[in-house]
């Protein structure tokens, strides 16, 4: 039997199947959005509430990546009309410290960690936005063949961040 009843609440994720843990223990499979969201929730919580951590950092969740992609597609569809990128959009809510448990306003941090899922490659990469250094990094373990796709994905993020930045 694969079911967990009642479901196990792991931070922001309800685990209903034992296979969720199997993926973590034995590997060889792509992590799901639930895996990523659970890990990044506990990372945000640890950094926000542990007095021993002095680094000013937050992270997003997997939904942020989807929202950002959606915003960029709308921006392109509307012939690069910058008015579609505004402070009422859900991406701005993330940046303002809303939308997720244990979130922090980006004005109060130096670093933002962003999980990015590359759909075609079925591969997660980590985006590191250094607000202090005004630099973006991508942490990955992929071959050069995937770099073109990764750059395309990251360029969307760069543009949207540029519009939202004060």
From TrEMBL:
The keyword Protease applies. The keyword Phosphoprotein does not apply. Keywords: Hydrolase, Protease. InterPro entries: Papain-like_cys_pep_sf, Peptidase_C48_C. One of its GO terms (biological process) is proteolysis. It comes from the Eukaryota. Residues 31-140 form the Ubiquitin-like protease family profile domain. Belongs to the peptidase C48 family. This is Ulp1 protease family, C-terminal catalytic domain containing protein. The lineage of its organism: Eukaryota, Viridiplantae, Streptophyta, Embryophyta, Tracheophyta.
């Amino acid at each position: 039997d694969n079911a967990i009843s009642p479901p196990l609440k792991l931070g922001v994720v309800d685990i209903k199947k034992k296979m969720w843990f199997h993926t973590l223990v034995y590997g060889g499979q792509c992590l799901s959005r639930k895996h990523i969201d659970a890990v990044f929730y506990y990372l945000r919580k640890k950094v926000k509430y542990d007095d021993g951590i002095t680094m000013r950092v937050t992270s997003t969740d997997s939904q942020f990546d989807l929202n950002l992609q959606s915003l960029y597609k709308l921006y392109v569809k509307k012939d690069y009309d910058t008015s579609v990128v505004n402070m009422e959009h859900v991406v701005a809510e993330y940046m303002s410290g809303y939308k997720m448990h244990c979130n922090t306003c980006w004005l109060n941090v130096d670093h933002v960690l962003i999980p990015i899922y590359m759909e075609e490659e079925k591969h997660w990469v980590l985006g590191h936005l250094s607000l202090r250094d005004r630099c973006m990094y991508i942490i990955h373990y992929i071959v050069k063949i995937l770099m073109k796709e990764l750059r395309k994905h990251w360029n969307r993020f760069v543009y949207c961040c540029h519009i939202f930045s004060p």
